[in-house]
Amino acid sequence: MNDASFKEKLLKYVTDREGELIENVKEIVRQPSVSSTGEGVEACCDLIIRKMQSMGIEATKHPVKPFPIITGKVGDDPAKKTVLIYAHYDVQPEGDLALWETPPGNSGSCRSTSSSYLKDARRPAARGLQSLSRRIRTC
Predict the structure, then answer these.
(1) Which uninterrupted H or E stretch holds 13?
(2) Distance of CA 63 to CAs 33, 43, 45, 70, 114, Å?
(3) Looking at the domain assignment, is residue 103 inside a domain?
C-alpha cells in the first residue's frame, strides 16, 4: 500500500468512526488512576483490558507491584510483526483544585486536550489502542 492510499484509508476510518473514537478516549480519561494514592488504578487497568478485549485483543493483567501491567496478543502467526505500546495509565494527584481550568479527569471535548489525564499518560495509551483497533479491523 502506498502512502497516499494509506492516508486516504486512515482518514476515511477516522471520519467514519469519529464519535466512537472520541467517546473511547473520553471514557479512559474520565477514569481516575492516581499512582500516589492508588485511587482507581485497578479500575483503570480493568477498563483498558475491557477496551482491548472488545477490539479482539487477548488482554492479560499481570499482578506486579505497585500496580498491574497489561499485555495483549492478537493471533499466533510468528510471521507477523510485534507491536509494543508502552505507556502508563496512572496520573499524579491533582493538587490545588483552584489552579485548574477544568476539573481533573474532565475530558471536555477531547479536542482541546484540557484534561491532565489526557495530557499525561492517557494520550499515548488511548492513541495506541485506537491505532491498534484500526489495524485489527482492516487486516
Answers:
(1) helix 3-16
(2) 16, 13, 11, 9, 32
(3) no
Q: Which three cell numbers stand for residue 93?
A: 494527584
Confidence of residue 127 (pLDDT cuts 50, 70, 90): low
**67-121 residue pLDDT tens:** 898 988 888 888 887 777 777 777 777 777 777 676 666 555 444 344 444 455 5
**For the chain, how many structural domains are there in total?**
1
Q: Is residue 8 part of a domain?
A: yes
- 10 SS3 class: helix
The candidate with the shortest Cα–Cα distance to 32, out of 45, 23, 41, is 41
The pTM (predicted TM-score) of the whole model is 0.68
Which domain does 66 fall in, by range?
Answer: 3-91+108-138
CA distances from 87 to 8, 71, 108, 120 (A): 28, 12, 22, 10
- Whether 63 is in a domain gets the answer yes
